[in-house]
Automatic annotation (TrEMBL):
Example of a GO MF term: ATP-dependent DNA damage sensor activity
Family: Belongs to the DNA mismatch repair MutL/HexB family.
Parent-protein start and end of this portion: 1 to 343 of 583
Domain DNA mismatch repair protein S5 positions: 213-331
Species whose genome carries this gene: Carpediemonas membranifera
An annotated GO BP: mismatch repair
Alphabetically ordered keywords of this record: DNA damage, DNA repair
A GO cellular component entry from the record: MutLalpha complex
Keyword DNA damage appears in the UniProt entry: yes
Protein name stated in the entry: DNA mismatch repair protein MLH1
């Protein structure tokens, strides 16, 4: 017998889509942090309970959200950032498809407190399954937005059971926030576990990149880093910071931003590993931060559900250029340190 084809109900579609975007607390934090940066925030404070699984809260001092937009805020494909498909190829914001808040509200209970410049008070709105639960209420609050996400995957047992320990989930969040704090070092970031007295990450406003690195990897790390001077190539520009040969990491740390987005870039990771291979003892690895800027038309940001990867037109050339720059800077550092030259 031939099975009948049916249109899936809306709630099933929403749950399937949410599952692609939000796998664990860190996906929610990354989306929410990017929303805050899109809203021009210069301060982002994150608080977690139980590694973000019980509760995660992110507070920013960005533009806030207009009251009139609250009814559709968590519905699917509602966005203030994109209006036509072509805009995708000149996108200047992290967000574009209006899926994050809808996905989060499909798999968790969401509360939003927001206040714009023109509002005299803040408002609190609660959401579930994309819908606003009752009219927003007035409350106290500064300009900006606070989003509280409770009981992640309360309605998706398999997902909830697949999550790691509290420490695991916390470490993933810490790692993503540390990376954003290095790239967007002009903004202030903090991360705190509600179970603990002291914050786990504090990067003050207008920190230098060095200060932001020191906040996460310690001041001693700075003595083992050298800047990658800004380099212009026909395919794009890049700059960054790379470890010298005094740094012997147990595992590689490669932080890559492409046009301001934190992405996994496996080809660049191997190019970087290649550049250090002959310089470091075996099983020792570098620490590298690279920020690439390419023409908006040369990068497709819509290739991965969690935006973890992008597709680049000139990937190979850019990887070669970064590897060459690293090689050059390692030679210089070796020369200065009087350690001889590479073979
Ligand atoms: P996207 O970022 O792709 O537009 P989201 O679901 O992440 O989709 O957000 C939907 C909309 O909600 C955004 O376009 C933005 O207008 C608004 N928004 C979300 N978070 C914030 C925030 N922290 N500050 C101001 N506006 C926000
Ligand atoms: Mg977004």
């Amino acid at each position: 017998m031939i099975a009948t084809i049916r249109q899936l109900p809306e709630d099933v579609i929403a749950k399937i889509a949410a599952g692609e975007v939000i796998h664990r607390p860190v996906n929610a934090i990354k989306e929410l942090m990017e929303n805050s940066l899109d809203a021009g925030a210069t301060r982002i404070d994150v608080r977690l309970m139980n590694g973000g699984m019980k509760q995660l809260e992110i507070q920013d001092n960005g533009t806030g959200i207009n009251c009139e937009d609250l009814p559709i805020l968590c519905q699917r494909f509602t966005t203030s950032k994109l209006s036509k498909f072509e805009d995708l190829f000149d996108i200047q914001t992290f967000g574009f498809r209006g899926e994050a808040l809808s996905s989060i509200s499909t798999v968790a209970r969401v509360e939003v407190v927001t206040r714009t410049e023109s509002m005299e008070y803040a408002v609190r709105a609660k959401y579930q399954d994309g819908e606003l639960l009752g009219p927003p209420e007035r409350c106290a609050g500064n300009r900006g937005t606070t989003i509280i996400v409770r009981d992640l995957f309360y309605n998706l047992d398999i997902r909830r059971h697949a999550l790691g320990s509290t420490t695991d989930e916390f470490n993933r969040i810490l790692s993503v926030m540390q990376r954003y704090a290095v790239h967007y070092c002009s903004a202030a970031f903090s991360l705190r576990r509600l179970e603990k007295g002291v914050p786990d990450l504090v990067v003050p406003l207008q920190a230098t990149r060095q200060q932001a690195i020191a906040a996460s990897w310690g001041a001693k790390m700075l003595t083992k880093l050298t800047p990658l001077s800004p380099t212009v190539t026909p395919q794009g520009t890049f700059e960054g910071v790379a470890s010298t040969l005094e740094y012997h990491g147990a595992r590689p740390t490669v932080i890559t931003f492409v046009n301001g987005r934190l992405v996994e870039f496996p080809a660049l990771k191997s190019a970087i590993a290649g550049a250090y291979r002959h310089h470091l003892p075996s099983r020792k690895h570098p620490w590298v931060f690279v920020a690439l800027t390419v023409p908006a038309g040369d990068v497709d940001v819509n290739v991965h559900p969690t935006k973890e990867r992008v597709s680049l037109v000139s990937e190979a050339e850019l990887c070669d250029a970064v590897a060459t720059a690293l090689d050059r800077s390692l030679q210089v550092v070796r020369g200065v340190a009087g350690v001889g030259t590479s073979q």
